[in-house]
Write a structure and sequence with these properties.
5 helices, alpha+beta
Length: 332
């Protein structure tokens, strides 16, 4: 049997152990709390970086267009400092890396592909800008564990994408047959085919079906109004537009089209020109008009396809890349 005089010594030993345990727990609690606070701080900074990267990428991608014959790749680099400085993270202007190239809308591959002689853009490859922003954050609590700072980064990709719609008054009311693109468009390079005789895009005449084959057919359209006014409202891919029949009244339209000589216009593309019918729009294209024939026996529009042209008002999501792009959107 233990004597009562031994109890104070045992209690003293236990009190000492509790003090050590409490001290250890306090260190752990402080470390966990500090870790949570520092992680929260890093997440706030990363959100600032992401917002800045998104905004900067959209701004820089907007300067790629219009471009002829290629997008203005150098513009993104030249304006990078300006764009990045508009947004701060952790109260400082972040470090940045700006890259340009083609982005595949299907995500295969999910990297920027460089615009050089070894790469030909495919139907799903669109001009894009990638911005990566980063800062180094000094931590508040983690230095007790030997971690004084942490780098944080974010990136975004913006691209001018294929339009799925054309806003009001953006289209010349003249529909082109898709077989015309099959003949004169390079689908592997997303640009017009080159005429070996001239070294430039093929020049062709487009006109009514009664004196033009399907691959060179085009016709005036009344959009969705029944009158020759183009597109008073937005035209979406899949919308049906009325193809005007061939009549003597067409002569006045070709005469009016003479005012577009030397200009690039946006046009709806349909599968086949069938006058007097409603045909669905499959895409939008850009045509540079050289000349217009007004003779009733030979009415035509002479021109050639152009590319890397930004449509003034249009929504993203089209399927056929005929050289027309919308305002940039974030794709990653």
């Amino acid at each position: 049997m233990k004597r009562d005089s031994e109890l104070p010594d045992k209690l003293g030993d236990q009190r000492g152990s509790v003090i050590v345990l409490v001290a250890l727990l306090l260190v752990i609690i402080l470390a966990v709390s500090g870790l949570a606070l520092d992680i929260g701080y890093l997440m706030v900074v990363r959100n600032e970086l992401q917002n800045g990267a998104d905004a900067s990428t959209l701004a820089l991608a907007g300067f790629l267009f219009p471009g002829n014959p290629d997008p203005h790749w150098s513009n993104a680099q030249a304006l990078a400092t300006w764009a990045i400085s508009l947004n701060k993270a952790n109260n400082v202007t972040p470090n940045y890396l700006v890259q340009t190239g083609y982005w595949n809308l299907t995500g295969t591959p999910a990297v920027l592909q460089q615009p050089d002689v070894n790469f030909k853009p495919g139907p799903n490859d669109v001009p894009a800008v990638m911005v990566t922003e980063s800062v180094s954050c000094n931590l508040f609590f983690m230095p007790v564990l030997g971690i004084n700072s942490k780098p944080v980064s974010a990136h975004a990709v913006a691209a001018g994408v294929i339009p799925s719609s054309a806003g009001p008054r953006t289209l010349l009311p003249f529909a082109l047959a898709q077989p015309l693109y099959d003949q004169y468009w390079d689908f592997n390079g997303n640009k017009p085919k080159i005429d070996p005789k001239t070294g430039s895009a093929y020049v062709f005449d487009i006109g009514p079906t009664y004196h033009n084959p399907a691959e060179a057919a085009g016709q005036w359209t009344s959009g969705d109004t029944g009158g020759l006014t183009g597109n008073p409202s937005t035209v979406n891919i899949g919308d049906e537009i009325y193809i005007q029949p061939d009549t003597p009244a067409m002569a006045s339209l070709y005469q009016a089209a003479g005012g577009f000589k030397g200009r690039t216009v946006f046009v709806p593309v349909i599968a086949l020109v069938e006058p007097g019918t409603f045909e669905p729009v499959v895409a939008f294209g850009a045509l540079h008009i050289i000349d217009v024939g007004t003779d009733p026996g030979k009415q035509y529009i002479e021109g050639y396809f152009v590319y890397n042209v930004k449509i003034p008002i249009g929504g993203p999501g089209g399927l056929y890349n005929y050289g027309v792009y919308t305002s940039p959107v974030l794709v990653k």
